[in-house]
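in:
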């Protein structure tokens, strides 16, 4: 079992953006020291949900301060980018890192974020598919030409070329949209599972996608799929739940809140005002702790990870730093994980 880190780089009210970036950098540097194989960051725009507006800039800072850790995107929202420019940036990172870049692509989940590129949300599926096809084509072909409905390029040669051959590993996120599932299954690239689905549903999706890929003549295995969960481990279950609840509550409240915006965002508003005026609640902490997060003692989380392993999952990603979890608690949980959990999988 390989272990990974993940963060959407949350920015709660009252926290300093520079400190958030410093904290995630510290976490990933420590992760390398502790034996995590990779670390992944999300892309988000116009929201406190995540400070991932410039993921390649943040990744370049972390690349410069690590030596073996693989750095991944989970995910680039590819319809928001000029494909050729994104291909260049990722290739540059691959060169700078000595070939340590993992790439995740997705369509994103918030319509308000599509304002960043003036892209109509109804075009997202076609742009998503075209952009990934074009990026991979630029990485693997000389004098590459592509003409789609939304993107066109003629006789192009990308500079620099990625270090990894034929290109950095590509993973593609999907949830319930059939068109996305069909595209991923036929792409020849493995699925990437984020934290948005319940564990049972996420595993069912993995099995569905493996079968669908086989139908299309592609080889996707469960072991190729990075599988991420909200994660927190402490010496006692009571401590783990007490530490995790405020951060996970913030996270779910933020997800609910930002979905109320088609344009604009919650950045200059107060979450407490939203909490006091909303008419329905998101899933409860108890529900999330049972169905979507791995929270508990070392023995409890070992059992949950082993259940994933029995399903064929070979890369498990821990989202330690969710919802503004205090940095001292994040680092303590990471160290406990390395000491008590990792040895159970050697």
């Amino acid at each position: 079992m390989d272990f990974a880190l993940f963060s959407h780089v949350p920015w709660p009210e009252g926290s300093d953006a520079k400190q958030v970036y410093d904290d995630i950098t510290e976490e990933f540097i420590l992760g390398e020291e502790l034996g995590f194989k990779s670390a992944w960051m999300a892309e988000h725009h116009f929201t406190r949900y995540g400070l991932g507006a410039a993921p390649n800039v943040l990744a370049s800072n972390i690349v410069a301060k690590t030596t073996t850790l693989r750095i991944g995107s989970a995910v680039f929202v590819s319809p928001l980018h000029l494909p050729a420019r994104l291909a260049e940036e990722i290739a540059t990172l691959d060169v700078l890192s000595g070939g340590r870049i993992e790439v995740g692509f997705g369509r994103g989940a918030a319509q308000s974020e599509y304002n960043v590129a003036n892209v109509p949300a109804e075009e997202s599926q076609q742009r998503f598919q075209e952009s990934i096809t074009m990026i991979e084509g630029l990485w693997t072909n000389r004098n590459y030409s592509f003409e789609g409905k939304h993107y066109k390029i003629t006789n192009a040669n990308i500079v620099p070329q990625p270090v990894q051959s034929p290109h950095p590993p590509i993973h593609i996120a999907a949830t319930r949209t059939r068109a996305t599932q069909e595209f991923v299954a036929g792409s020849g690239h493995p699925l990437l599972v984020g934290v948005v689905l319940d564990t049972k549903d996420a595993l069912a999706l993995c099995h569905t996608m493996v079968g669908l890929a086989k139908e299309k003549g592609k080889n996707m295995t469960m072991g190729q799929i990075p599988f991420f969960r909200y994660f927190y481990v402490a010496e006692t279950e009571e401590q783990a739940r007490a530490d995790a609840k405020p951060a996970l509550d913030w996270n779910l409240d933020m997800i609910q809140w930002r979905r109320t915006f088609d344009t604009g965002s919650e950045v200059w508003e107060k979450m407490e005002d939203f909490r006091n005026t909303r008419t329905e609640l998101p899933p409860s902490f108890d529900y999330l702790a049972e169905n979507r997060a791995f929270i508990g003692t070392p023995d409890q989380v070992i059992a949950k990870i082993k259940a994933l392993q029995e399903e064929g999952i070979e890369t498990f990603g821990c989202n330690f730093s969710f919802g503004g979890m205090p940095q001292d608690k994040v680092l303590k949980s990471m160290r406990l994980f390395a000491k008590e959990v990792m040895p159970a999988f050697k």
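note: The mean pLDDT is 97.
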